[in-house]
């Protein structure tokens, strides 16, 4: 049971870190995407996961599409 609890805590920590990193690096991530870098490269460069980069891009595209 303790292994499962530790795993869940690690997931929560990563989500919190990703959320904090996203708020401070979303603009930079979008600039790097526009420059043609891969999501993986951007994630490594900014210290966030490639899935976080993907979420930033999806959110940005949804905002640009409007209602």
Short structural summary:
The chain has 67 residues and is mostly helical. The chain has helices at 2-34, 39-46, 50-65. It has one domain.
Protein model, in words:
85% of the residues lie in helices and 0% in strands. The chain is elongated, with a radius of gyration of 14 Å. The mean pLDDT is 86. The chain is an all-alpha fold. Helix 2 (39-46) packs across helix 3. It has 3 helices and no strands.
Low-confidence stretches: none
Number of domains: 1
- Molecular shape: elongated
The termini sit apart by 45 Å
- Sheet having the most strands: none
Beta strand count = 0
Number of helices: 3
DSSP strand content: under 5%
Subunit organisation of the chains: single chain
**If you compute it from the alpha carbons, what radius of gyration comes out, rounded to the nearest whole angstrom?**
14 Å
Class computed from helices, strands and strand pairing: mainly alpha
Topology pattern, helix = H, strand = E: HHH
Protein name: Helix-turn-helix domain-containing protein
InterPro entries: Resolv_N, WH-like_DNA-bd_sf
Pfam family, one: HTH_23
Organism: Polaromonas hydrogenivorans
Task: Annotate the secondary structure layout.
Layout: H1 2-34, H2 39-46, H3 50-65
Features:
single chain, 0% strand, DNA strand exchange activity, 67 residues
């Amino acid at each position: 049971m303790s292994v499962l609890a530790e795993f869940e805590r690690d997931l929560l920590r990563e989500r919190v870190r990703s959320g904090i990193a996203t708020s401070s690096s979303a603009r930079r991530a979008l600039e790097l995407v526009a420059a043609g870098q891969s999501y993986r490269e951007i994630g490594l460069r900014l210290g966030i996961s490639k899935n976080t980069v993907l979420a930033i891009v999806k959110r940005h595209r949804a905002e640009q599409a409007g209602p």
